[in-house]
Amino acid sequence: MNSLYHRHRAVIPDWVALYYQDPIELTHGEGRYVWDAEGRRYLDFFGGILTTMTAHALPEVTKAVSEQAGRIIHSSTLYLNRPMVELAERIAALSGIPDARVFFTTSGTEANDTALLLATAYRGSSQILAMRNSYHGRSFSTVGITGNRAWSPTGLSPLQTLYVHGGVRTRGPYAAYSDERFIDGCVADLEDLLGHTHDVAALIAEPIQGVGGFTSPPDGLYAAFRRVLDRHGILWIADEVQTGWGRTGEHFWGWQAHGQAGPPDILTFAKGIGNGMSIGGVVARSEIMNCLDANSISTFGGSPVTMAAGLANLGYLLEHDLQGNARRVGGLLIERLRAVAAGVDAVREVRGRGLMIGIELTEPGTDRANPEAASAVLESARENGLLIGKGGGHNTSALRIAPPLSLTVAEAEEGAAILEQALRSL
């Protein structure tokens, strides 16, 4: 073990996990590749948890950050901020939410925290609906609504949370149903649940569950939920922290796979928009965003430097059609991985869309989670020059594959070949 690891252990909390038996220090990156302190190069299929969205060391972003830092780094939201207004205008227009207002934070956790504040204040209720197997952040309020035991260290919460079926298609009581019957069953469960509650503030849901292992319902589930919610005046919060900005290929936002009943009332985002800079945020209809009756600001949300990065990054993404690239290259990659997995007994399912792909691993011949296999594949992939992620919820273990959206076909094949070797070594 290197000395930096021992220094880390001496001052960083034990619950801050590190990947790999011999943790690595990443020192620099370019494109879809990163290098460690020993000079080893890796193809990056995780992007710092879906955050390096376009490319490492993207010149357009680097230049924008450097130039803005040379002018002014910080001012807070107490002063007019041109980069913040410009990025807010672009995101409001892209969001699909009418008369949208945008509030910037520094993380997805803080964005979801703000969405919960808005929804509960607007509705005058502290009851929240969330999905089983969900993850929404590490603050006190977001841990309390997270439906994934591995990431929720306390049951204490300022909110009362009720969990709904539907976030996982191939497990649970409705797994054997057709897609249509699955949606009907989940809607019936929601209707029944609402019959046992007082007024509910909002349903918060990830269109594709990130930490939970890239699981998702059939398209249209949240539209069917939305019709029920609307009858009760309940808000829909779409947590797009991992699914936004075209990563799913087919849609710019994950909610658009469920858009038949209209856009969400509140949308949260973070991760990829800053390409590594700390940007999160909330988009909401004006009457919801403006409902707070007390002062609020953000010291670091909307920083001129991070906003400059976000503008440059979003501009590059749109100009180079990285959503289309995610659809094309991601489609090739998932089919390649499905072909590989067909010959590996430990693989239960390859799922996802665009460049957001999950490989669920089980003990061969069973539905039991196989975290040992997931760790073994993670280690083998790293040894052969590929970085991937892990995830999963109740009795599940999954590999998470989410490269930068500029991934080339050749790089997709390179990563798939390494993953094939790692999976077959099981």
Describe this protein with a few key phrases.
426 residues, alpha/beta, 16% strand, four-stranded mixed beta sheet, 15 strands, seven-stranded mixed beta sheet
Describe the structure.
The protein is α/β, with parallel strands linked by helices and 426 residues long. 37% of the residues lie in helices and 16% in strands. The chain has 13 helices and 15 strands. The strands form 3 sheets. Strands 4-10-9-8-7-5-6 form a 7-stranded mixed beta sheet, sandwiched between helices.
Would you tell me the structural class of the helices and strands? alpha/beta
Assign an overall shape: globular
Tally of strands? 15
Taking all Cα atoms into account, the compactness measure Rg is: 21 Å
Low-confidence stretches: none
Task: Outline the biggest β-sheet.
Answer: 7 strands, mixed
What's the mean pLDDT score?
Answer: 97
Order of helices and strands: HEEEHHHEHEHEHEHEEEHHHEEHEEEH
Distance N to C terminus:
25 Å
Q: Specify the number of helices.
A: 13
- The percent range for helix content is 25-40%
Question: What's a concise summary of this model?
Answer:
With 426 residues, the chain is of the alpha/beta class. Helices cover 37% and strands 16% of the residues.
